[in-house]
Structure prediction request, 106 residues.
Amino acid sequence: MAKARKTQRAGAGSNNRELLTWALHGLEQEIAITRERLTTLESQARQLRSASRLPGRATAAGADGADAAPAAAGKPVRKRRKLSADARRRIAEAQKRRWAKVKAQA
Prediction:
């Protein structure tokens, strides 16, 4: 029986190499497919981003006017609406009431 095991082990080394070669080849194919899918998804994301940038809409970075890129690109940036002093005061009071309610429960 000992000789049978030695012969099986001798042949197992080449089988392991072959198996590893096939596995590596399969992994390389999966990597290539995944990269193609990623490229496709990135191009779709770019298309969606460009479609969502409509004229007159400000970007998140350019909404406050700090970023000059949208203006440089020739896209108009919507001006921010200004709250009246009374509106700011009412919002502040409402928020204070909310916090007081939360603190009272704790």
Q: What stands out?
A: The radius of gyration is 32 Å. Residues 1-52 form one domain.
